[in-house]
Amino acid sequence: MARTRADYTSTFRDLAAIEGPADGRLADPEFIAWRARWSARRKHEGVSDDDARAIMRSVNPRVIPRNHRVEEAIAAAERNDRSVLTSLLEALERPFEDRAESPLFALPPPPGLGAYRAFCGT
Fold it and tell me: Which of 1, 87, 105, 116 could form a disulfide with 67 if both were Cys (CB 3.0 to 4.6 A apart)?
Protein backbone atom coordinates (compact mmCIF):
# COMPACT_ATOMS: atom_id res chain seq x y z
CA MET A 1 0.00 0.00 0.00
CA ALA A 2 2.83 2.40 0.81
CA ARG A 3 4.58 1.82 -2.51
CA THR A 4 1.41 2.40 -4.56
CA ARG A 5 0.11 5.10 -2.19
CA ALA A 6 -3.13 3.16 -1.76
CA ASP A 7 -5.62 4.42 0.79
CA TYR A 8 -5.55 2.24 3.92
CA THR A 9 -9.26 2.08 4.78
CA SER A 10 -10.47 1.80 1.20
CA THR A 11 -7.92 -0.91 0.41
CA PHE A 12 -9.11 -3.11 3.24
CA ARG A 13 -12.75 -2.47 2.39
CA ASP A 14 -12.08 -3.38 -1.24
CA LEU A 15 -9.91 -6.37 -0.35
CA ALA A 16 -12.87 -8.73 -0.11
CA ALA A 17 -14.73 -7.24 -3.08
CA ILE A 18 -15.70 -9.66 -5.83
CA GLU A 19 -14.14 -7.28 -8.33
CA GLY A 20 -11.61 -4.60 -7.61
CA PRO A 21 -12.52 -0.93 -7.84
CA ALA A 22 -13.03 0.54 -11.30
CA ASP A 23 -9.96 2.75 -10.93
CA GLY A 24 -7.71 -0.33 -10.95
CA ARG A 25 -5.73 0.53 -7.83
CA LEU A 26 -5.85 -3.11 -6.78
CA ALA A 27 -4.26 -4.26 -10.05
CA ASP A 28 -0.70 -4.00 -8.70
CA PRO A 29 1.05 -7.40 -9.06
CA GLU A 30 2.27 -7.36 -5.44
CA PHE A 31 -1.25 -6.63 -4.22
CA ILE A 32 -2.66 -9.45 -6.35
CA ALA A 33 -0.14 -11.87 -4.80
CA TRP A 34 -0.92 -10.59 -1.28
CA ARG A 35 -4.67 -10.94 -1.90
CA ALA A 36 -4.15 -14.53 -3.14
CA ARG A 37 -2.22 -15.39 0.05
CA TRP A 38 -4.96 -13.80 2.16
CA SER A 39 -7.63 -15.74 0.28
CA ALA A 40 -5.75 -19.02 0.72
CA ARG A 41 -5.36 -18.38 4.45
CA ARG A 42 -9.07 -17.57 4.81
CA LYS A 43 -10.01 -20.77 3.02
CA HIS A 44 -7.59 -22.76 5.20
CA GLU A 45 -9.27 -21.24 8.28
CA GLY A 46 -12.74 -22.02 6.91
CA VAL A 47 -13.82 -18.42 6.26
CA SER A 48 -16.02 -18.19 3.17
CA ASP A 49 -15.83 -15.38 0.62
CA ASP A 50 -19.25 -14.12 1.75
CA ASP A 51 -18.22 -14.12 5.42
CA ALA A 52 -14.95 -12.34 4.63
CA ARG A 53 -16.81 -9.75 2.57
CA ALA A 54 -19.30 -9.14 5.40
CA ILE A 55 -16.55 -8.88 8.01
CA MET A 56 -14.43 -6.47 5.95
CA ARG A 57 -17.44 -4.28 5.19
CA SER A 58 -18.47 -4.20 8.85
CA VAL A 59 -15.14 -2.84 10.11
CA ASN A 60 -13.94 -0.67 7.20
CA PRO A 61 -16.29 2.24 6.49
CA ARG A 62 -17.24 3.27 2.98
CA VAL A 63 -17.73 6.89 4.06
CA ILE A 64 -14.72 8.56 5.62
CA PRO A 65 -14.84 12.11 7.02
CA ARG A 66 -11.79 13.23 5.07
CA ASN A 67 -10.29 16.59 5.89
CA HIS A 68 -10.84 18.05 2.44
CA ARG A 69 -14.56 17.16 2.58
CA VAL A 70 -14.93 18.58 6.08
CA GLU A 71 -13.19 21.80 4.99
CA GLU A 72 -15.48 21.94 1.95
CA ALA A 73 -18.53 21.66 4.23
CA ILE A 74 -17.22 24.35 6.58
CA ALA A 75 -16.45 26.73 3.70
CA ALA A 76 -19.93 26.25 2.26
CA ALA A 77 -21.54 26.80 5.68
CA GLU A 78 -19.57 30.04 6.05
CA ARG A 79 -21.27 31.13 2.81
CA ASN A 80 -24.65 30.22 4.38
CA ASP A 81 -24.89 27.06 2.28
CA ARG A 82 -25.48 24.21 4.68
CA SER A 83 -26.31 21.67 1.97
CA VAL A 84 -22.75 20.34 1.79
CA LEU A 85 -22.62 19.88 5.56
CA THR A 86 -26.04 18.21 5.53
CA SER A 87 -24.92 15.77 2.82
CA LEU A 88 -21.76 14.93 4.73
CA LEU A 89 -23.62 14.39 8.00
CA GLU A 90 -26.25 12.22 6.31
CA ALA A 91 -23.53 10.08 4.74
CA LEU A 92 -21.80 9.74 8.12
CA GLU A 93 -24.99 8.47 9.76
CA ARG A 94 -24.44 5.11 8.08
CA PRO A 95 -20.75 5.04 7.06
CA PHE A 96 -20.58 1.30 6.37
CA GLU A 97 -23.40 1.24 3.81
CA ASP A 98 -22.87 1.55 0.07
CA ARG A 99 -25.21 4.29 -1.10
CA ALA A 100 -25.32 6.51 -4.16
CA GLU A 101 -23.38 9.33 -2.46
CA SER A 102 -20.83 7.03 -0.81
CA PRO A 103 -18.15 7.24 -3.52
CA LEU A 104 -17.98 11.01 -3.14
CA PHE A 105 -17.10 10.65 0.54
CA ALA A 106 -14.81 7.65 0.10
CA LEU A 107 -12.28 9.17 -2.26
CA PRO A 108 -8.96 10.38 -0.93
CA PRO A 109 -7.98 13.99 -1.59
CA PRO A 110 -6.98 14.80 -5.14
CA PRO A 111 -3.26 14.74 -5.94
CA GLY A 112 -1.49 17.98 -5.21
CA LEU A 113 -3.82 19.03 -2.42
CA GLY A 114 -1.00 18.57 0.08
CA ALA A 115 -0.70 16.72 3.34
CA TYR A 116 -2.98 17.44 6.26
CA ARG A 117 -1.86 17.78 9.82
CA ALA A 118 -4.57 17.32 12.40
CA PHE A 119 -4.24 18.57 15.96
CA CYS A 120 -6.11 17.76 19.12
CA GLY A 121 -9.27 19.80 19.28
CA THR A 122 -9.61 20.25 15.52
Answer: 116
